[in-house]
Design goal:
Low-confidence stretches: 164-178
Structural class: alpha+beta
Strand order of the largest sheet: 12-19-14-17
Number of strands: 19
Helix content: 10-25%
CATH architecture of the domain at 303-403: Sandwich
Shape: rod-shaped
Radius of gyration: 58 Å
Length: 405
C-alpha cells in the first residue's frame, strides 16, 4: 500500500519544512544538529555515501593506544595460533618423544661470517650447501676407550680430500646427530665414531681393495719406521698363550703368592771349556755342568771376595782384613790360625776392637775354622786379631766377602 500522505495548505499553526525529490513528492526535512548560533542545520548526504559526517580537516581520524582494541580470532587463524604456541617451552621444561612439538628453523650462509658481540643474538651459520656449521669445544673420548683424543680440522680435511668430498659428516654415537666440519681452520674435538659419507665411486674403490686383499695384494716398496702405531689383533689360541705367558711377569719387589702365582721354567747353558765373562749390569745366562747341575758359589761373586793375613809376637791388635770403605761391611767365612811357638795360647778375633770369637792355638799347631754362618762386621771397619800370650810367632789368615747390607 502507498506510504505517502497528503497535506493541504492552510492557515494558523506551525510550518513544517520539506524537500521535494523532483517527482512532486515532498520529504520532511529533519535537523540533527545546531550551528554555533543555535539554529538547526541539516546533515548533508548523497546517494552514494549516505549521511556525511565531518570529523575534522580532511576527515582524518587519529587512532592511539589509549584504549583497548579487542580482536576476535577464529577459524584457520585461531588454529594456526594454537599450533604455533605448542612449540613454546619454559626453560628446562620436559620434552616427550613423539608428542611434544618443535619448529623447523633455517640458517644464514655468509662467505665471510660475521662477528657477534658477547651476549648478543645472531643467526645460525650454514655452509653454501645448507649444512649447519658447529664448533665443538674441549676434548672428548672416542669409541668409549677411556682415552682423550683431540681431532684436528687439518686431519679431517685430509680425510675429506681422500674421499673426494667437500665435507665430513661426524656421527656422534651418543646422540646419533651429524656434525659437518668445514675448512674453517678450527680444531674440532669429536666424540663417538667418525663416519665418512662415501660416494658410489669411493665405495667401488673400497670394494676393489677388499677383493684384492681377500686374494693376492701386491704392495710397492715402502719404508716402514717406528713413527706410528701398529695394532695387531690377537685372538683364539694365540691370545690364550699370550695371557698365560705374561702371568709369571712381576714388577720388581712385587708380592708372590705360593700356590697361585705362576713361574717360568728356567734353563742354563753348559759353559765349561770356554767360560765367558760379562760386564757390570749385563744380563747373563745361568751356567750348568754337563750332567745338568747348576753351578753356583757360596756367599758372593768373585768381585766381592776379600781376604788377608797377619802375624804378631805380642798381644796388641793386628789388622788382617782392611776396612772396605763407607757403608761397606765385611763378612768373615773362614779363619786359619798357626802357633809356631812351644806355648799353648788363644787367638782373639775382633771387629775393630770388639771381640767376636776366640780360637784355641795349641803349641806348634794350629786350627782351621769354617763358619756356617759368617761373622758380620761393622761398616767400614777392619778385622783384627790379638794373641792371648806373647809367642813367637802367631799367624792368622781370614777369608770372606764385602757387602753394603
Amino acid at each position: 500500500m502507498a506510504s505517502n500522505y497528503v497535506t493541504d495548505a492552510g492557515s494558523g499553526g506551525n510550518t513544517f519544512k520539506s524537500t521535494e525529490d523532483g517527482s512532486t513528492i515532498h520529504w520532511p526535512a529533519a535537523s540533527i544538529a545546531l550551528d554555533n548560533s543555535g539554529t538547526p542545520v541539516f546533515a548533508p548526504g548523497d546517494g552514494t555515501d549516505g549521511l556525511l559526517v565531518n570529523l575534522g580537516s580532511n576527515n582524518d581520524v587519529v587512532v592511539t593506544n589509549g584504549g583497548t582494541f579487542a580482536v576476535q580470532v577464529d577459524g584457520d587463524a585461531l588454529t594456526a595460533l594454537q599450533l604455533i604456541d605448542d612449540a613454546v617451552y619454559a626453560d628446562d621444561a620436559d620434552w616427550t618423544d613423539g608428542t611434544s612439538k618443535h619448529m623447523l628453523i633455517g640458517g644464514l650462509y655468509q662467505s665471510s661470517p660475521q662477528s657477534i658481540t658477547d651476549g648478543d643474538v645472531g643467526p645460525l651459520q650454514v655452509t653454501a650447501n645448507g649444512y649447519l656449521i658447529t664448533s665443538i669445544n674441549g676434548t672428548v673420548t672416542v669409541d668409549a676407550s677411556g682415552t682423550t683424543v683431540p681431532v684436528s680440522n687439518a686431519a679431517l680435511t685430509e680425510l675429506a680430500a681422500a674421499i673426494n668430498t667437500n665435507r665430513v659428516d661426524v656421527n656422534l654415537a651418543a646422540s646419533g646427530a651429524t656434525v659437518t666440519v668445514d675448512g674453517s681452520g678450527v680444531t674440532q674435538p669429536v666424540s663417538g665414531t667418525v663416519t665418512a659419507n662415501l660416494s658410489a665411486t669411493d665405495n667401488a674403490v673400497l670394494d676393489a681393495i677388499q677383493a684384492a686383499v681377500e686374494g693376492t695384494l701386491t704392495v710397492g716398496s715402502h719404508a716402514v719406521t717406528n713413527a706410528g702405531t701398529f695394532a695387531v689383533q690377537v685372538d683364539g689360541s694365540a691370545l690364550t698363550a699370550l695371557q698365560l705367558i705374561d702371568d709369571p711377569v712381576f714388577a720388581d719387589d712385587a708380592a708372590f703368592t705360593i700356590g697361585t702365582s705362576k713361574v717360568n721354567m728356567a734353563g742354563a747353558t753348559v759353559d765349561d771349556t770356554s767360560t765367558d765373562t760379562a760386564d757390570e749390569g749385563d744380563a747373563v745366562a745361568l751356567r750348568a755342568t754337563a750332567d745338568r747341575r747348576l753351578i753356583g758359589m757360596p756367599y758372593e761373586s768373585h768381585a766381592n771376595l776379600v781376604d788377608g793375613t797377619g802375624n804378631a809376637t805380642g798381644t796388641s791388635n793386628t789388622s788382617v782384613i782392611a776396612a772396605q770403605g763407607a757403608g761397606i761391611r765385611t763378612y768373615v767365612t773362614s779363619i786359619q790360625v798357626t802357633n809356631a811357638s812351644a806355648t799353648d795360647s788363644e787367638v782373639i778375633i775382633k771387629d775393630g776392637t770388639t771381640e767376636k770369637t776366640r780360637i784355641t792355638a795349641p803349641a806348634n799347631a794350629g786350627a782351621i775354622i769354617q763358619l756356617p754362618v759368617p761373622l758380620r762386621g761393622s761398616a767400614n771397619t777392619a778385622w783384627q786379631f790379638a794373641s792371648a800370650d806373647s809367642v813367637t810367632t802367631m799367624y792368622v789368615a781370614m777369608q770372606g766377602y764385602k757387602s753394603n747390607t
